[in-house]
Design a protein that fits this description.
Length: 351
């Protein structure tokens, strides 16, 4: 530890992102990126905004993007917040609502949650998933200062029924509940329809997955205006200009091209169904997925062996080596149908 470091920094275990190799592998299926590029309208919007106005600061409140999102989801503009990727949005939420409180979230979930808790000195309690890896919200009906969980969960991919979330909100109306919907567009019901009913609900989403904008970093949050104001206060105390001009223009174009969005997400869902069946035919156990990935383990071969063998064939998947309950699982990003056929062919050779 450097003698100038604050003690909190020395105790941090930073989030470990999926590997981004310098040399492109045959198949990169480890970071849940979209196999399809962004909408052509997104590319056009970026080109149109590469001009002399880049010398100017962007709109600090991203008003046009907020308006576009509000219209798309039938909400008021005051119920929309945007930031530099959903990770930044989540960081602002943790700062705005959970400091000095005990936060509850699943023991197997997005690993940024405990990192933020440590960074912002937030107490937390891990709630174990069921044996089938589902989130059971009945276990969260205990004293707490807030709850956060992804839907579908990550890395398991299992979606939660919207009625379960609604029932939980009815029973927990005095603390903030955050539903992290980074993967919601691949077959999971969104909790956005519950925002007007519950003044303690925050829903976060990302443009990185279903909108193919991982390289531009755009995230958003939806809640009743009083909660959005609190998040905005944190943002404007940290970075008044989180989204640059190109990101704002691209995100607007991505929302407006609904046909492209529906076409590409359907292709990913279809490719997921294909891969799930192929895996089952090879004696894999595949958890039900509402995301653009599958979480799976083989009846005979250990996940580490499969991970290493795939890597030797130039195929990257995600293996969570330090997580005991899921050490025999791998997470596979869904690519194109052709990519999934290639993966299935290699897996058959391996096992």
């Amino acid at each position: 530890m450097n003698r100038f470091w604050h003690e909190t920094i020395s105790e941090l275990t930073p989030y470990t992102p999926g590997e981004q190799p310098i040399n492109r592998p045959q198949l990169k299926l480890n970071t849940n990126e979209n196999p399809f590029g962004p909408s052509p309208k997104v590319i056009d919007a970026i080109k149109e905004n590469i001009n002399a106005e880049l010398r100017l600061y962007p709109d600090p409140e991203s008003e046009d993007l907020k308006k576009t999102l509000a219209q798309y989801y039938h909400l008021s503009k005051q119920s929309v917040f945007v930031g530099n990727g959903s990770d930044e949005v989540l960081a602002f939420i943790f700062q705005a609502f959970f400091q000095g409180k005990k936060l509850l979230f699943p023991d197997i979930t997005y690993s940024f949650y405990p990192v933020y808790c440590k960074l912002f000195s937030i107490d937390y309690k891990l709630i174990p998933l069921e044996e089938n890896f589902e989130i059971n919200l009945e276990k969260y009906n205990l004293e707490h200062g807030g709850v956060i969980f992804p839907n579908p969960n990550a890395p398991t991919g299992i979606p939660m029924n919207l009625n379960c979330i609604s029932d939980f909100l009815h029973k927990n109306q005095n603390t903030i509940v955050v539903v992290d919907e980074a993967y919601v567009d691949f077959g999971t019901d969104s909790a956005l329809c519950l925002i007007e009913e519950f003044d303690n609900l925050i829903v976060t989403q990302s443009f990185s997955k279903s909108r193919s904008l991982a390289g531009l970093r755009v995230g958003c949050a939806f809640a009743q205006p009083e909660l959005i104001e609190a998040i905005s206060r944190v943002k404007n105390s940290f970075n008044s200009y989180p989204l640059d001009r190109l990101a704002q223009a691209a995100a607007i174009a991505a929302i407006q091209d609904e046909n492209y969005f529906k076409k590409t997400t359907k292709k990913i869902i279809d490719a997921r169904s294909f891969l799930e069946q192929e895996l089952r035919n090879m004696n894999f156990n595949v958890l039900p997925s509402g995301a653009n990935f599958v979480f799976t383990c083989h009846a005979t071969w250990h996940a580490k062996h499969i991970f290493e063998q795939l890597r030797s064939h130039g195929i990257l998947v995600r293996y969570f080596i330090k997580s005991n309950r899921i050490e025999n699982f791998i997470r596979i990003t869904i690519g194109t149908k052709i990519q999934m056929q290639t993966l299935a062919k290699v897996l058959k050779q391996i096992i």
